[in-house]
Amino acid sequence: MKYDAIVIGSGQGGNPLSQGLADHGWTIALIEKEHLGGTCINTGCTPTKTMVMCAQVAHYARNAARWGVQTGEVRVDLPKIIARKDAIVQSFRSGHERKVESRDNLHLYRGHARFLGPRQVAVGAEVLESERIFINTGTRPEIPSIPGLAGVGYLTNASRRQHLLDDLAQERLQLAIPALPAPDRKDPHRVPTLAERAARAGASATATAALASGATNSRWPLDAFPAPPGNCTLWVASNTTG
Prior knowledge:
Blueprint: E1 5-8, H1 14-23, E2 28-32, H2 38-42, H3 45-62, H4 78-101, E3 106-110, E4 113-117, E5 120-123, E6 126-129, E7 133-135, H5 161-169, E8 174-180, H6 193-200, E9 205-211, E10 232-238
Helix pairs in contact: 3-4, 3-6
């Protein structure tokens, strides 16, 4: 099958590109092996920010007295938070599916794309051809080189959320961050957001991070970072000496 263009991957670049070209009358083949929307909608920005926002609300509620507001006991319903996140992700994903279905000249192929030549791509048994092929392949989790990690269970941003629920329920969540800059109180974005999210949801979280640069074999308490939750501990070790 020959197309005016082939777009591999339906992420934040592939979706608007394929839809825009289709709206200009081109015949487009869009290839996606998993969910429409790519990393941002399914395992990155959208689910992360949705859950971080809920953790932030819990943090404000627990600390409301600082602003002159008196509250009672604050309880976090983590299954409900994750269900809300899943509903938002599904709504965004479904929106992209409807946009594809509404364009007769935009054809979605489900599967792994494999180049057969400079202008040929195979998806399963289908062979697609085009003079223009755009690659928008997205991301996957990078597993850090931490001794012993392969022998224990670990989570990534793409892991099944039930595992996260089980670990939080037993308060045994530990987090590994591949690289983290030195602590800087002026930069709140340097606090590991997953650790904050877990701790503010009620778990005793431990985050293990390798420094991007800094002192050799350093261990810094989490209070070196801005506004950490009290039940979250961070161990930081330099990756410069192994």
